[in-house]
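Open question from group meeting: does this chain pack into something compact, or does most of it stay loose? Before anyone orders reagents, we agreed to write out a predicted structure and look at it together. Recording both the input and the output here so the notebook holds the full record.
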Amino acid sequence: MSDKLYISYNQIHQLIDYAVKNYKLGDDYNPDLLIAIGGGGFIPARILRSFLKAKHGRNIPIQAIGLSLYEDLVPGQSPNGVPEAPGTQVTKTQWLNFGGSDSLVSLLGRKILIVDEVDDSRKTLVYAVAELKKDILEQEKKAGLAPGASNTEIGIFVVYNKNKPKTEELDDETMKRYYATATTPDRWLFFPWDCVTDIGVHSELAKKSFSSM
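Structure tokens returned:
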């Protein structure tokens, strides 16, 4: 059995559709800001927004952040992409824009949903939540509010949660709003946006990958 699990666009789309209904997203937890972790969270966040819009008729804004925990192993030597090994430290490559009054991202009072394609070690998600909490505290301070007075909420949405021990854990409050569309074995997930050959062949391999599990 190959260590690689192929993932198709159709599978991701169907899983997000199912998760919105199963978790009653937009009802029990109704996010008003999606934060996509680049680059794997971009496409899932866009699909998720469409399903949430279908419920309430409004587009939820999507903000992008860049966090890197993976480092390439012998990059560029395989036409189908190369496996990556988890690093030991999260690197912030892009963050929310707090630069000016016209581009200020207000977090206060928001119901935030962080979106990523996979929960592997959980280290990246823990880092993202911690950094957002720092920003929320800073904005509360500037607004003359006590810590936590804005009632800002943070949730997590991942397409795949790997069934493995996590190196770090999210706080209990955030875990109340943790949504994973599916759980997979601890194997290399080969997503469709990583495919640089025939996407049709990739999609067929995705069907076989999960039918053999």
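Observations to bring back to the group:
Residues 71-80 have pLDDT under 50 and may be disordered.
The first strand starts at residue 4 and ends at 6.
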